[in-house]
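Pilot study result, target chain (306 residues):
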Amino acid sequence: MSEIRQRKKTKEELNKEAEENPPKTNEEAVKFFQEKMWDAMEEKVRKEAPKGTSEVEIRKMVDEQLGRVFEPKKKPLPGLTHETKAVKDALTKDPYNLHLIFELGQAYVEEGKEVEACNVLVRGWKRMSEFEKPEQRFVYLLNLCACSIAANKHKQALAVLLDIEEPSEGHEFMCEYSRMACKVYSNNGNMQKSLKAFSNAIGPCADLDDALPIWIDCMIELKKVGAFDAAKSALERLAKTEEQKKRITAAELIQTLRHGVNQERQADTVIPMPVKLALGVSVLLTIVYLLHLLESTNLATLKLGK
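Predicted structure:
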């Protein structure tokens, strides 16, 4: 990201650049955004860095902060790792082995191949009684639930969720179960249950730092079902300072941009010209606002997941 550093531009120059050469894709929009954020982040890092910090260290700190915020989800690599292929070969020889089904599904998840994982894990869905430990059943079904969402099989995800034994209040798995339930119910159009699940997920959180990753993970689904504002209000009750409220807003803007990049990479689509122009204006406004937020917010604290 260091190579995109450039001199600062005035607001007028930013407006002119956006009008003359609007981003053609969401990915170009984020690159445009990154370029304008670089100088602002560098200036902030220089002010906060201990005296004597080298130029190399400063560039590294800026790269790490911006990279953590803007790096979109990468496409899975083609082919299989040696470890995954070994498990797949073993399952081919023993196709009904539930533990191998579980292991191969987990291996696909680790490689970012959720659709393939879904196709494997669904084979063992109705055989949970063969697992001796409740934890095994929970992790298996939760993975299948997440992979079903990734494969856009939302009805299946709901059916899988209903087969999961709901953890009792205070149980270590309660937060993860509620987070998944929020996404599943949102994707199936049940606003009331999605909000209840979100409330259960952030309920045990001691502060905003604990709750923010949950909010980021569920944000896009909550928007789909119309529960976004209510969920955001619940989150804002954990914000004790103005700086924390700004972190919530910054996380919302950045996650929306990142979601656009990931969607575009999956669909590999070209955006029509009217949308390009609207996108350029939207990104410009986002840049101006986030530059303002940057003055009092460390973007590395947003805890944005990939």
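One observation from the pilot: Confidence is low (pLDDT under 50) at residues 1-8, 273-281. A full batch analysis is planned for the follow-on phase.
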